[in-house]
Amino acid sequence: AQSVTQLGSHVSVSEGALVLLRCNYSSSVPPYLFWYVQYPNQGLQLLLKYTSAATLVKGINGFEAEFKKSETSFHLTKPSAHMSDAAEYFCAVSTIIQGAQKLVFGQGTRLTINP
Amino acid sequence: EPEVTQTPSHQVTQMGQEVILRCVPISNHLYFYWYRQILGQKVEFLVSFYNNEISEKSEIFDDQFSVERPDGSNFTLKIRSTKLEDSAMYFCASGSAYNEQFFGPGTRLTVL
Prior knowledge:
The structure holds 2 protein chains of 2 kinds. Chain A is mainly β.
């Protein structure tokens, strides 16, 4: 079975500082990995995805993530935090069943940006 | 930009009542999903639907749950007899390919 662990349920950084949100996965097959963001009272928006191509994946809003197989990690980073980045972030791993995809999510990390 | 929509945004019901949560997926998508998020917990997979049938369902998706795509545009989740523990945010998602899903804004279900 696949699983995801997000280290840190709450992360707080200053505006302009580096954002690092940690995600480790467990998968018996090569994984597809995703980061989603959820703003208050909204649905889940895809930030970026890894699907076995380049290990460094660039997403929207200046975020990127690096797939490291040896560390079973897919950490999300952004060089300089902006106030609008405050949200809940979810890492997910997927399995493919009969062509459809099942996402297994981590617990989420709430990112707070301090002025 | 096309988006997944869900109605209602908030549904309050009495325990034992039936509820139907509605979703309109993005029009050319072929894969449809329901997830739920109990307050303070992780997002959990409920069911996937492709080619007019369920592809996979989780242990949560028992006989009280059903899904339907009645008219080629809507995708519904029915809970026949709601329990208190069904209170959660329910998310619909759709995708055109197996490696991406677009989520709706969710329906908050409160069972009293």
